[in-house]
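Study both lines:
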Amino acid sequence: MPVLKITHVGWDAPETRPQMANDADTRDGFSLTNRSILRNGEPWIPVTGEMHYSRQPRESWADALRLMKAGGINVVATYIFWIHHQPHEQDAPDFEGDLDLAAFVKLCHEIGLEVILRLGPWCHGEVRNGGHPDWVVNADYTERTNDQRYLDAVRTWFGQIGQEVAGLCGSDGPVIGIQLENEIYDQPDHILALKDIARESGLFAPLWTATAWGSADIPVGEVFPLYGGYSDGFWVDTDQGWDESFQAHFTFSHQWDDPGIGKDLAGESWTGVVGAKHPDFPAATCELGGGMAKAYHRRPAPTAREIAAVALCKLGSGSAWQGYYMYVGGTNPRKGLQESHATGYPNDLPELNYDFGAPIGAHLQLRESFHRLRNQHSFLEAFGSRLGAMNATIPANDDDGGLRWSLRSDGLSGFVFINNHRPHEPLPARTGVQFDIGLKDSRVLFPHRPVDIPAGEFMAWPVQLEVGGVVVRWATLNVLTVLQAEGEPPVLVLTANDGVDAHLAIAAGCSVDGHPFTEVSGERVLENVDTAPGPITLTNDDGAQLRVLVLTAQQALNAWTPTVRGRRRLVLSDAAVVERDGSLEVLARSAGELAVMPPLGAAGDGFSYHRFEAESEAAEVTITQTAPASPPPARLVTVPGRASAPFPDDFAAHAARYTISVTGEAKAGVRSLLRLELVGDTAASSFEGREEDVFWDGSVWDIDITPAEDTDRRVLEVAVYPLAAGTPVWLPEEVDRVRVALTEPTAEITGASVVAFKAIHVTGSA
């Protein structure tokens, strides 16, 4: 491969400041430019994760929010679903229990997270009527318009929301943003009317936002346009391949509009035209796919690498705000609240399941995507103020079959972003990769000799990165974070990629302690630094020192960066680690150990080590089939290209029935999941009156079996509707091979295990 050459290009327009957050709805230390959001005068790249309080039990909120914070989320976005709160017009909205919006927002604040209220009143979120109660849909006015009778109903609803949370919208409150409506394409005056009503209700924030995909005509200036990007989606037809709107997110581009999102609901409003980012606002997202919901007809299951590769491509393209939908999965609060063919939607969704394959699942299980995204977010926490000031320069040949890469730079330093991962149509391994980067006053050729980049890898490499007065000329390593212990040199933490040579270079005048180096063209090159046994110390000719710690790719997936006692720490642990009340807590399935830097207590090699105990629950699972499946009727295709889910009567008549007994001590309040492996079309379960369901996509199905009281035996009922070779659904490729090979309709549980998570305070960290 020839040397990949590029020269930094500066911003194409002078920095300007819109009225939003500067002249209107101001907040101390918070402002906005056409390039970035500013906190205390420095660029800030927010990381927003979507969690729906009404889809999580209240007793899980705190754990979910602490896990979000541990994953690098600093802003929580949540829809306020009108239909969840007020299903009947004659009843006052319910804001109690799991619907206590004010309590949720206050809890976010207590845990150290800010909030975006996605106000609606039409939200979508795969909810019946987009979140409108049936009585609104059936009223004699036109919803989602400036019909005065509809606006009057909204005024009452927003007023009731205002009574709950208006007091949390002030300068000291956690609410920093409000989204109006969602996926509305051609009614800017309606968005303005909703904003006026929200203000009348006491709701305000420095950022007012609206979704801008699909060339939406929104009142830019009055609202901040936000975009999205999914690796796959349920909203295309069963027989449709991998849509080009999904493919576009695996490359670097100045295109932010995705006209495919919500296309099937847009109707005549959809134009197919790709809209341009508005020059008065920075590129920002509110819906990067943290996973994907399953419709009956199409069941994507994005992998962790897909999710993280899309996020990295957005950063490399110049994103000033990373927002994920969903980040925490959930469960609908009752049946009948999902979008469905029966309620006029083109998609049938599960009645209850909204797990979304999110980084944090509906039952707070952590997925690989959580860890891969967390590494990016740790980087943003430590270096986001620098990255936020950097323009993106994207090679013209980015997508012509060559390597996909970009440069974000301020002209003095920068980061080279590389993506060599793409699902469905894998990209080839790249051999002999070397870059020639032009900055304002210098060029950097790196690495010193070409390296290979395997298929499936993605990364962000630093160029001329200064930390603690020492400049790292370049590295074929990802930047994770920087640590600062009192009275000691900072520690730059870097992470390797599997199959990529891990090299690093500094200026020839620097000294190196802890690793050999080679003189190459005026640089000192440290090769294979991922084999170094501990931190490497770099000292420049002015005496400034920097220690460099390199983690392997596997270690990086176990690397947490909580702030404890006012100081950012690196914690290595394969158990979940959260900060709680100034100390560390693990959510563990078994005994283990934490390694913490800077240390919390005695240390020998820069880390303190903390053992924790968690006895694994001895649980025996017995599966008894109580009724066999019977051949189901042919699935109806009631919407063109999209079959409907089994009708309740058909499910009852044809599903296989199982009774599953779990024996072994189980404590109330200790989160416990039954992990089922199965082959079937759809499935449903019942335990202690709690119902769950799933559209099978080949993934394991986690069912919450946390008991209400201590017990040594738990029993649940599971029904599995049979899958046939001809069932007209789209499944991931490997799973689809299972479907087409079936010789008879199958509804079988193939494996079961129990997973329990205990919260353990780590001794020595208090």
